[in-house]
Amino acid sequence: MQLTTYSYRFAAEVLNSPAFKKERKDIEDIFKSIKVPQLNPPKLRTRGGKQMTFTTAQKDLNVLLNDEFRAKGWDCQPFVTEDKVTGIKAV
After folding, report:
1. Helices (H) and strands (E) in the chain, counts
2. Would you place residue 1 in the very low, low, confident or very high pLDDT band (cuts 50, 70, 90)?
3. Are 61 and 36 in contact (CB under 8 A)?
4. What span, in angstroms and rounded, lies between the C-alpha atoms of 38 and 58?
5. Integer Cα distance of 54 and 44 in angstroms
6. Could you give phi then psi for residue 51, rounded to 5 degrees?
């Protein structure tokens, strides 16, 4: 897979920092190695009068990414607050 990167909320500045060299490598290695699951057949949706085709099996991709990041020792979807009262997770 060929990667194209975009910076969202200063992500490029963080990941280009020497402090996050390992994390950046993990992310790049995972995205270069996975095969994105496809929907068969693709889903067609109309939003705002515009018809769109969705080809990625998003739920399967999310599971695949969680598995790959966990295999590299990442804590996937940790709780945002320690008290866990809200149940909000980082995703």
Report:
1. 3, 2
2. low
3. yes
4. 8
5. 6
6. -90, 135
